[in-house]
Amino acid sequence: MKYIRAKANFIRYTDEKLLVKARYILSCMKNSTVFINPTLPLPTIEDAYQDYQKKVIEAESGSREKKSHKRESKRKLCELLQQLVAYVNLVCDGKLSLLHSSGFPVLTKKRKGQVPNTPSAPFLCDGRTSGEVAFGFKPVGRDMFYDYRFATEVDSYGLPQWGEIFYKTNSFRAYYSGFTPGHYIYFQVRARNKHGQSHWTAPLLFMVG
């Protein structure tokens, strides 16, 4: 199998990030004309996703038992996605365009003089005032621009409807205001240099305070 491959190391993802990423993967796989005979039935993964989503909501009560059930459900979903990504890599055999169409993150070798890697560890948290958020991420190199965008709505498939793209020249914490407190928003960032631009990070979900 080629070194360039999709990956599914989701166990360390936050609940919000995993829910968004898993939903995106399922949407890509269901609408694909390439991945038509997965070794693992998609309804099985969809059931695991629905169970995990339910457990995440139930765990908000703070009960230790419900938090334990949530962790078990998360582990099951991650294991199923690991099985699915093995099928994706077998079908794609290192073809980058096909790998990206699966919705899974893609691992490639680093190259000099090429487009930058996707920024890692993006975060959102409450800002300095109500309706404002703070955001940031880890840098990927020198002489870099970082495009970022927000979404406040989703389409009929549950995918974020992105707004205007902004940019900054560093990864330091920054602030963005004008959101409605108590509403969920999505956030993405990508790196850009003279050779091109990286892929967007997985959508990050956050409730505005």
Outline of the structure:
The chain is an alpha+beta fold. It contains 4 helices and 11 strands; from the N terminus they run βααααββββββββββ. The protein folds into 2 domains: 5-107, no CATH class; 120-207, Immunoglobulin-like (Sandwich).
What does this structure look like?
This protein is an alpha+beta fold. It folds into two domains: 5-107, no CATH class; 120-207, Immunoglobulins (Immunoglobulin-like), CATH 2.60.40. It is 33% helix and 25% strand. It is built from four helices and eleven strands. The chain has helices at 15-30, 42-59, 64-92, 96-101; strands spanning 5-6, 106-107, 120-126, 133-138, 145-154, 160-162, 166-168, 174-176, 184-193, 196-197, 204-207. The strands form three sheets. Strands 5, 6, 7, 9, 10 and 11 form a six-stranded antiparallel sheet that branches. The chain is globular, with a radius of gyration of 18 Å. The mean pLDDT is 92.
